[in-house]
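Suppose you are handed a protein chain with no further information: no name, no annotation, nothing but its sequence. What can you learn? This example shows the usual starting point.
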Amino acid sequence: MKTIKITGTILILVFSSIMLTAQERETTPVTLDKVTESIYQIMGGSGSNGGVIVGNNGVLVVDAKMNEESVNQTIEAIQKLSDKPIKYLVNTHSDGDHIMGNRYFPKSVIFIAHENCRDDFFKENFGRESDWGEPEYYPFTPSLTFTENMNIWLGKDKVELHYFGVGHTTGDVVVYFPADKIAFLGDQYFSTRPQLIHSNKNGNSFEHVKTLTKMLETLDADTFLSGHSDPIGRDDIKKHVQAMVDRQNAVKESISQDKSLEQTREDFNENEARLVTSSPGIRWQPRLGRRHTVAVVGNRSESGPLGGTPGPSHTLLTSLAIL
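A reasonable first move is to predict its three-dimensional structure. Written in C-alpha cells, the prediction is:
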C-alpha cells in the first residue's frame, strides 16, 4: 500500500467571495416571505435570511439580522401578522450577520443557542475583542442552551432544535417545525458558492459531510431554509454534500499523485482553479514520507464584528489524515 507523509503542510482553497460585505451592500427593506400559514422567511435588510414561526401563544424568530433598522423592520412586519408576543429567538450559530441584531430585540425575548454557539459570543474573533460581556449587551446573549436536542412549545405547536455535529462552526443549530416538515439551517448550506467553514470557530468540512448526512437521516423535512439561499429540498442537500466530497477527493487525489501546486490547480474547473494557493509561510511539500496530513483552509473574513458576513474572503477548512 502506498504511504505518503506531509508534516505541517497546508493546502489552501481560498474561496474569495464576489459578494460584498453586508456593510457595503445596498440593503433592501425587510420582508416576510410566506412559506406556510405559520412559517415565514425573513428576507432583505442587513444580515442573513432568518425565519418566523407564529404559534398558538407566541412567536419564535430564527436569527437576528445585524442592525437596529433591520430588527425594527422585522418586528414591525411580525406585528402585522400577529398580535402574539415574540417569545423566543434562536441563533443558529454565532456569525455576526445572524446575532448582532439580538441587542435590538426586546429584553423580554428569550435567546436560545447551542452551548458552543454561546461560547463563541464571548471569544475574540479575528483579533477583535467581543463586547457581548458588557452590561448593556449581556442580556441579549443566549440564556438557554442545549447540547443535542431541545423542544419548544408555542402552545400546541412544537418546534424542535437539533445539533447534529461540527460543520460551518461547532455550534450550528437546525430549527425544525415537524408539523410542516420545514427546517431552518442557518449557514449549513450555500447554493451559489462552496460551503463556507470557519476555521477560527473549529469548523470542519469533513465533519460537515457527516453532520448533514445525519440530519437527513434524522429529520423527515422536505423543505430547508437557510441564511443565504432560497428554499431547497432534500435532493439539494444531497448534491451539496456530494460537492463537498468531490472537492475533498480531488485534493486527496492530487497530493497522492505528488502533484505540484500548479498541477493541483488543474484538477479544478476554471472558476475554482484560481482559488487554489498555498498558505503564506508554508511550503508545498507533496511527498515526505509515511503519513500525509491535509488541511484545506481559506482566508478569514474581515467583515463584521464576528466575521459573520461573507466578505472578500472566507474560510473553508478540512483536515484529513491518509495512512
